[in-house]
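Figure S4 source data
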Amino acid sequence: MKRTTKIVLTVLLAVASLQVAKAQESGFSIRVMSMNIKECGRYCGYKSAPYAELINQYQPDVVCLQEVDYRTNRNGGRDWLNEVALATGMWPYFSQSMSYQGGGFGTALLCRYPFWGLTKIISNITGAREPRSTAWLYLTLPEGGVVRVATTHLALESGQITIQHLADVNSKMFKEDSTTPTLLIGDFNSQEGSDPYTYAGNRWVDLGKGYGDTYPTSRPDITYANQRLDYVMASPKTGWSVVKYEILDCPDLSDHRFIVADLIYTPNN
């Protein structure tokens, strides 16, 4: 029985690999959304409904979230991500970075379509104040293309620490798969033109260049100078085009502005 099961699994994996390879020959379009939600909704009393309403308004294929709580004391022990998933009809994946206030804290993904290949990595970088998670998934889009989408929240203590964190993410992502079109989305804690941004350009293309700053929102209690900290990065560096790229200023929901991007990938055959 065990031998038969092993043979069946091997055949299924081989078939899946062939399907992915065939799908990668096709281009695709995708709408993605990036949301750093500031301590899982502190600005709106940790409610999930306002975020679900915004997601439903824009109907993204994938949402990349940062600063997500799971049943913490500060959010009243709520499963915030599943509340949003139920309200939007999307599939959730929570990637815990660390235990926090009786629950967990990390990044997350919401996907409109069934997905596979879920992966979570924890980066413990010397000098960083906390471990940080990066998570990704694979999905086949309705027109047939396969894409890998990752959410990340990079370390902020110094430019060198941010680079080390990104190097760890790159190493693990590209060791797993260096061919599937991939999006790395989230809060990079680095401004455009900084050393970490330049380092990112070695492996990724910045699809949001020129579309505006993402931090801070227009809250009167935030006095930082405008910066661009949140990105939609893509690999390979060719084949991508931007149909629309919006920066959403939602001061009642976060200190970061959100991103909604409509993208097309056309493989270079």
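Figure S5 source data
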Amino acid sequence: MGIYGPGRPMKFDPFSGAGRKPPSRPGEYRMRSASGAITYIGETNSINRRMHEHMRTGKLAPGCTLEYQLADGRSSSRTRRIHERAKIEQHNPLLNRSGGGEGRIAKKR
């Protein structure tokens, strides 16, 4: 079994409040447009915080919904980023400009 449990992601509309509000826990999230297309995929240590950041910057706009899956206790930021990159490659979302992991400081060698 992977770092995410079985089943479909939970859904939340941050503008209407419909669905299950994401917690401040690690996991993967996806933003969907009103037409149903996945527009962005990301991973974070706090899904709730990241959702609010995307709303503030306008990336998560009215009409869009947030889907998320919580990571299990065995996951690390590294394993979540590997999963994120695979999902970005699979879905090719419009707003993902790279293969994931943007803004993260590279480890020293």
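The beta strands are 10-12, 27-32, 38-44, 65-70. The chain has one domain: 10-91.
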